[in-house]
Amino acid sequence: MKRTMLTIALAVFIMAVPLWAQSEDDFEVSQNRDNTITITGYKGTARAVVIPETLWGLRVTAIGDRAFYGKNLTSVVIPNSVITIGSSAFAGGRTITNVDGSISNGTPNRITSVTLGNSVTTIGDGAFSGNLLTEVVIPDSVTSIGRYAFTQNNLRRVTFGSGLQTIGSSAFAGGGVTSDYDRYGSDRPQQVSGAATGNQLTEVNLAATSLQTISNSVFKDNQISIFTLPASLRRIDNEAFGNNQIKSLTIPNGVTRVVPGAFSGNPIETLVIPASLAGRQHGRREWSLPDNSDQGSRSPAFPAENLVSITLPANMQDEVIRLHFGDAFLNFWISQEKAAGVYARRGPIWTREAPPQAAAPAPAPAATARTTTPAAASTPATPISADSNLPVNWRTIVEGGNAALQSGTSANFSTGRETIQRAERDVLIFEVTLARGNEWRFGQFNLEDDALIQRLKTANGVRFKVQGDGGAGWKVLIPTTDTASDNCFHESSFTTRNNNVVNVDIQFSRLRQPSWGRRVNFNKSNITAFAIQRQTDSSSVSGSSTIKVFDFEIY
């Protein structure tokens, strides 16, 4: 009887002790300057680890590099106190080549479940690589995910939080071998034997994030067929979505750069390219989309062999069209006067779908006396004259030295007819709002008119009149092929005061040398673009400024 009671008591005791029980002595720690704790190592034997919020009476705020590397773990719960997860902190941990060339072996983690606390902001390079995760929820607090962070798992689903701003290269890449990221050895995962079959994501929804760039190979080698990109996105890098199952691709308006191979290896049938990708990025050596003139960038951003429908903005560059869609489509597109619209393929033949018919105009009201009030750039102005000679095709670009500056900076363009100096005039309205900060940021307007760019190559200069509110930082930028290799341009600044009209006369023979890069003389025959920009890197310049340009003349 006593033996039976003892057995029962022992069984109850064992059941009462969690399989993931750890003591403070199981963790190696370092004390931080702010009197918090970083976990630097793990000596315990429990495979299901629940990290405590406090150790030795101090709050745990960080998991150090390689702290739980190769510890035979199966699950991890990270508390709400933790802010930073270091590089390779929970990586699988097989055979690793160290910096000195020696080989070390660990007992591999095989983590199938991870719970991230709601204070984590940074997930380091390779933090969870080479495990068996099938699902991950990224909390809203996370702003940065490092390179290879979740590569080579068995991921089928990832939920992205609203705070995410950056994802490092290959962070969620798939593939059929297990790799472990080791920041102390190779800068890429080592190929090893074993467990994970590779991430196989089928759907990615980034709409809630604040991402501006999707880096190299982030989602490469998955099975993605459905994905949603954020409105904040500006750039998609090499093989970011390479080798997936994407059939319908819509690039959000606002994206200004898609690099070669970004969507390679996808069976894309329907493609929508926004106006923000038309033409050359001003002041850079790169095209918005790769073209045949790019040195070292001759592969297209996405494959075209399966395309049956392409939606294009007007006046894209010939070289971009030829590289992506071939000479047959280029010839047809030119025959359509490079018009915006939906182009469809039936067998070898391209057609352009008829644009939708505009609604019939409302009957005109009886004639009355009219006064014209200057309109803000964000509100519709009186339409310009049908015979106006103003260049009206401009593309806006906004950039900043960091995510906050870029998201806080905006640029808006409109046209109108307004009363200036007692006369009605057709005007171009440029409005730029600059975020407050200490790094560079700008709003820019690129002239999207190939015929006018060609005229500039034989002209002596450009003159126009401008009325503005006195906001600082306005200039005209004129890049050439001579300055492209240094990402710079010749420029001419102008200043407005209290809505007075200023005459701006840009004589090509007097243009200033580039403010950085090589010192090169201006050669008008090599002009590649023309832009108006408001830019600053000063903390004293911020807020909104509007200028109105009229009487524009190339002479």
Describe this structure in words.
It is a single chain. The chain is mainly beta and 555 residues long. The protein has 3 domains: 17-224, Leucine-rich repeat, LRR (right-handed beta-alpha superhelix); 246-353, no CATH class; 394-554, Jelly Rolls, CATH 2.60.120. Strands 1, 2, 4, 5, 7, 11, 13 and 15 form an 8-stranded mixed sheet that branches. The chain has a 5-stranded mixed sheet with strand order 22-24-25-26-27, covered by helices on one side. Strand 4 and strand 5 form a beta hairpin. It is globular. It starts with a helix and ends with a strand.
Total count of helical runs of at least 4 residues: 4
Estimated radius of gyration: 29 Å
Say what the CATH topology of the largest domain is: Leucine-rich repeat, LRR (right-handed beta-alpha superhelix)
Low-confidence spans: 1-21, 95-104, 176-196, 280-287, 292-297, 357-381
Q: What is the annotated CATH architecture of the largest domain?
A: Alpha-Beta Horseshoe
* Largest sheet features: 8 strands, mixed
Strand content is 25-35%
Helix amount:
under 10%
Q: What do we call the CATH homologous superfamily of the largest domain?
A: Ribonuclease Inhibitor
CATH class of the largest domain: Alpha Beta
Q: End-to-end span in angstroms?
A: 111 Å
The multimeric state of the shown protein is single chain
Structural class: mainly beta
The chain-level mean pLDDT equals 79
What count of structural domains? Answer: 3
Number of strands: 37
Query: Which term fits the overall shape?
Result: globular
